Amino acid sequence: MTTSFVEQDLQAVFLQTVCRQTLKNKVLLLEAGPKDWTWKIHMPAALIYNLCDNKYNWYYETEEQEFMDNRRIYQPRGRVWGGSSSLNAMVYIRGHAYDYDRWEKEGAEGWSYADCLPYFRKSQTHELGPDDYRGGDGHLNVSRGKSDNPLYQAFIDAGLKLAIPSQKT
Ligand SMILES: Cc1cc2nc3c(=O)[nH]c(=O)nc-3n(C[C@H](O)[C@H](O)[C@H](O)COP(=O)(O)OP(=O)(O)OC[C@H]3O[C@@H](n4cnc5c(N)ncnc54)[C@H](O)[C@@H]3O)c2cc1C
């Protein structure tokens, strides 16, 4: 199967990178929903259109939330080629190291953050160049947010005060 990066889930890119480079296997993607051939998906700023109807969206709602006045909370998920990544906002988010390490402790052998980190690096080209955490020649081009709103750093500082360590991505 040959698709461009924007048509694939980030997870699928990650999986393909792992498979191509270590297992030499092919990956078959099975997905419900229509083809993704629309400007509403190809133009990232059009994301909001897909959040307002169910054409490319499962349009889920949560159960009633006891601590939110029993409201049901809207949960968009992609129902289209590319899944939710076809609806996403192009923010690069790497899972927190604690989560990977917990998964391994719970039995997912080989999925600790240290195990996954080489593949995160292989997948990434970071604008600040490669280092121990960031990649320099992968498929995902990552740049830092251009906004310098002081609230962002205040948010990170608040986490540090609560002993939540910051993590490079
Ligand atoms: C609106 C929105 C914005 C987001 N923005 C970002 C962002 O900026 N950065 C970021 O990193 N992440 C973002 N995310 C999250 C990211 O898109 C998801 O975490 C990621 O796509 C999950 O990948 P997945 O392969 O696990 O699931 P999905 O991409 O949801 O893929 C699951 C696929 O399975 C299909 N499927 C489900 N049930 C069936 C069935 N019974 N039979 C056949 N197919 C089925 C679905 O239709 C879908 O195509 C966003 C998500 C949403 C919804």
UniProtKB/TrEMBL annotation:
GO molecular function: flavin adenine dinucleotide binding; oxidoreductase activity, acting on CH-OH group of donors
Residue span, Glucose-methanol-choline oxidoreductase N-terminal domain: 78-101
Keywords assigned by UniProt, alphabetized: FAD, Flavoprotein
Cofactor(s) in the UniProt record: FAD
Top-level lineage group: Eukaryota
Keyword Flavoprotein: yes
UniProt xrefs under InterPro entries: FAD/NAD-bd_sf, GMC_OxRdtase, GMC_OxRdtase_N
Family: Belongs to the GMC oxidoreductase family.
Protein name: Glucose-methanol-choline oxidoreductase N-terminal domain-containing protein
Organism (species): Desmophyllum pertusum
